Structures are given as C-alpha cells and as structure tokens.
Amino acid sequence: MNISPRIIATLLLSIIAFGTVFFHYVEGWNWVDAYFFSVVTLSTVGYGSLVPATAIGKVFTTIFIFLGLGIFAIAIHEFGTYMVRKRQDHEDWLIARLAHKQGKHKHHHHHHHHHHGEPTKPAEDYEAVANLDQDPEP
C-alpha cells in the first residue's frame, strides 16, 4: 500500500474535524473539549475525563474509534515504510560513496594493503561507512 502523505493527512484531519463537530453538537461540549476528546480517543490514550452521555454519542464513538484507528494504522504504516526507505537510501548512498572513495584510493595509491578482489571484513566495511558520515568530501 502506498498512499500519499497528503491523502493520509487529509483523512486524519477530516475524521478529527468530523468527530469534533459531532461531539460539539450532539454532546454539547465546547469546541476545545470536543477536539480534545476526538484526538485522545483516536490516539487510544483515552484519559477518561470526557465520556459521551447520549446513546447516539456512544454508538458514534465506537464507529469513530474503528474508522479512526484504521486511518491511524495506515498513517503509522506509511510513516514507518517511509522511514525505512529513507534509511535504506542513505545506506545505499554511503555504500556508493565508499565504493567511489575506495576506487579513488586504489588509483592514487598503488601500494595498498587490499588486493583486488579480496573481500573486506564486515567490521572494516562498517567502520568505513560510519566514517563517511563525518567526511565532508562528496
């Protein structure tokens, strides 16, 4: 599933706005309390400081929770996928940079310790990649 951040944000804001309007008019809460209840309920924090008193308010809240949790779950999934992708892109960039630097190093220094085709140890690779993050040279 790949839903744009704009659509997810629109869905989240829409359900919070819808809940806020509903609780304001049906439960008679002020706008701040209605908004607060909507966010606290959808985030599953549920402080318990506000509770719907009407039957329709209670039924609506159960539907609101299921819809809202679905939207929140999609948002969290998409955010997690985005973060993993960004991390992988950064790692790929560092590895490409390391390969470029090692290639440059091999061309400039003919007396290097690594023989062509000899694999490096994972610890050496990790250290070299970690050092690239601090190295300002592109």
Describe what you observe in this structure.
This protein starts with a helix and ends with a helix. 73% of the residues lie in helices and 0% in strands. The protein has a domain of 95 residues: Helix Hairpins (Orthogonal Bundle), CATH 1.10.287. By secondary structure, the chain is mainly α.
CATH class membership of the domain at 5-99 = Mainly Alpha
Shape call: rod-shaped
Radius of gyration: 26 Å
For the residues shown, what is the average pLDDT? Answer: 82
The major beta sheet can be summarized as:
none
Structural class comes to mainly alpha
Short synopsis of the structure:
This protein is an all-alpha fold and 138 residues long. It has four helices and no strands.
Architecture blueprint of SSEs:
Elements: H1 5-26, H2 31-42, H3 55-108, H4 122-134
Helix pairs in contact: 1-2, 1-3, 3-4
Main features:
138 residues, mainly alpha, 0% strand
